[in-house]
Amino acid sequence: MNPQAMGSKKKEIALQVNISTQELWEEMLSSKGLTVVDVYQGWCGPCKPVVSLFQKMRMEVGLDLLHFALAEADCLDVLEKYRGRCEPTFLFYAGGKLVAVVRGANAPLLQKTILDQLEAERKVLAEGGERKVIKDEVLSEEDERFSREKDDGEDEDVVSSEKACTLAIIKPDAVVHGKTSEIIMKIQEAGFDILTSEERTMTEAEMRLFYQHRAGKEAFEKLVHHMCSGPSHLLILTRTEGTEDVVTAWRNFMGPCDPDVARREQPDSLRAQYGTEMPFNAVHGSRDGEDARRELALLFPGFKFSDQVPEAPLDREEE
């Protein structure tokens, strides 16, 4: 091997610590600042395209509070449920707690998430505030237990007793066209906080229950079939900016249900930009506070959310 290649390899190793044991995992996650873990599969290896981004970020923000690590899913029991996934997964930890998840080698989204989470952690360290801890539904129960034990048994599943949440779904038509990362970036730029984010294919039983209130058998069957036709991306959203509650803010950001109407009336809305025709309107949102509770309970049964979900007086238009 030539010296240049060896030097490059050394830089890569130094940049990302390889976590191969539970002890190293716990040690790395307890590092001061933000730790970004690239969870990879042994058969395809770590995500190499992001290494240059990570090197750039370390040079820009320094070495004291930003750490990068590699963890092979098959080597750690806490990552059991990440095994067999071909999409790269990046877990963000601060103070031993999961604070963000990014799926896919999306450099702009990774960079934004690193900067946002680093700024948030600096504030926590400087002002002693609380971290915005999330629960990634894919994580194993062992990892959840470890997180709770490290915090002396405090339950971190409740993000905040005052925060209201709503469900957002990036539908199969938008996912299959590769628009997930782009839509997620727009959601974040619009002032929404993403508590949980995961991609999965819905079952017919889930969707029949989910849309059970829909009138019209033909439309119902078409909608259920579409929602089970491929993977969707599910998000739990909160909002810290603006005066609108999160349910209303998200519905306004989605735009009118029919993409054609959306393009006429709200050309900047998500459905105007990413929807084609009904039911392929790219995104779904809970209609009001009551619906948000029902939908979150159905699709995220392990997630505990605020008791204070505001009721939004909205029309009963179907998604």
TrEMBL record:
InterPro entries: NDK-like_dom (IPR034907), NDK-like_dom_sf (IPR036850), Nucleoside_diP_kinase (IPR001564), Thioredoxin-like_sf (IPR036249), Thioredoxin_CS (IPR017937), Thioredoxin_domain (IPR013766), TXND_domain-containing (IPR051766)
GO biological process, one term: GTP biosynthetic process
GO MF terms held by the record: nucleoside diphosphate kinase activity
One Pfam family cited in the UniProt record for this chain: Thioredoxin
Recorded superkingdom: Eukaryota
Gene3D superfamilies: Glutaredoxin (3.40.30.10), Nucleoside diphosphate kinase-like domain (3.30.70.141)
Domain (Nucleoside diphosphate kinase-like): residue spans on this chain: 163-307
Family the entry assigns: Belongs to the NDK family.
PANTHER family to which the protein is assigned, alphabetical: NME/NM23 FAMILY MEMBER 8 (PTHR46135), THIOREDOXIN DOMAIN-CONTAINING PROTEIN 6 (PTHR46135:SF1)
Record-given protein name: Thioredoxin domain-containing protein 6 isoform X3
Species the sequence originates in: Phyllostomus discolor
Lineage: Eukaryota, Metazoa, Chordata, Craniata, Vertebrata
Gene: NME9
